[in-house]
Amino acid sequence: MRFSTLNDWLHWQETLHPRAIDLGLERVRAVLDRLQPEPPSFVTITVGGTNGKGSCVAFLDAILRAAGYRVGAYTSPHLLRYNERIRVNAVEVDDQSLCEAFARIDTVRGDVSLTYYEFGTLAALELFRQANVEVAVLEVGLGGRLDAVNAVDADAVLVTSIDLDHTDWLGADRDSIGYEKAGIFRPDRPAICADADPPPRLIEHARRIGARLLRVGCDYGFIPAGLTWRWQSNELQLDDLPLPALIGEPQMGNAAAALMTLASLRQKLPVPPTAIHSGLTNADLPGRFQIIPGPVEWILDIAHNPRAAAVLAQNLRVRPCPGRTLAIMGLLADKDARGIIAALTQSIDAWYAVTLEGARGRTSAELMTLLHETDASVIPAANIQNACQTALATARTGDRIVVLGSFHTVGPVLAIQPWLSNFSLLSSGGA
After folding, report:
1. pTM of the model
2. Which domains does the chain have, with CATH numbers?
3. Parallel/antiparallel/unpaired status of strands 297-301 and 400-404
């Protein structure tokens, strides 16, 4: 084995390939063919889209586990630990298992250079095979057509939404991005689209390859009914469903898309109503409108594009607080910071701008310049922990603090969550 610790493996993977992001399937397919010559024995569901992927994976994972299936879930990036990316029956894989999977991939790859993300994707598939999962739920990392996850021919795919993000790689308009997302579709297999206004190229691609496109508003839908809701397709109807455990305006739509995906696979993966009820009420997804209660409430949300920021603003409006809303924001340089700020301007009383380290990070000075364009109240912070301390020092009982902008912003705050909770409970409010 080349390395004995997970951190050593990960640091090495970051330097192995000349480009951190290098879309394409040739490398990962070549290594996967050597690693697993036979097709996977498990049913595969691939989830792509701009926003809502993590939520849909969480619903699918929770419902399928409640139905008694052994489920592998692969997501990225992670908030606290790399191990979060690969889970079997909701349990993160351990360091030793990851190291052994990396070693096997390293042995069979020969002279094929792999990216950090490709190594992780192959490790997930190898670990799911070893764990004898019955179904694997795979989240697309970037785009779809050329993402490493697309090396697997999924039994059903779900595209959650199509919005402007990662435009340097996927194209500058929704039509181009929609085509990239549609690249995970397969002929004569279910292709669920949860976007109410899918771009023409997505629809055209599905028709051209003969995918069984199932669209919200056409082939399935959902109706809120107070404390319950109804889901229906052209063939099925489910009444009196419990509200999704995940908080926020889009979550019923995400849950409905997950139900359509499962309905399309009901011959392979039958799921009883009791499992649907259990999964909807027990799905869990840290960092997505995650609330830490206290005299000063914390809300953690990885909103990192204008559409996600607009959803966050809507969620804040339907959950008003008696005091002020303070925001701690850190963004990567390739994100539409001006669009994110515009979506949230009316919802935030004061901002704390933080620098995200690394080659893709954006400085607090850059964020402050954009925030000053809106006449916002802005406080610079040396780092995320300093921003948390400063915000808490000025917060009063009844205020709330929203942390947003990136996995790299929310993750460090989650790491100090017990400290935040204790501080909030002890705090009597600042000036």
Report:
1. 0.92
2. 6-282 (3.40.1190.10), 290-426 (3.90.190.20)
3. parallel
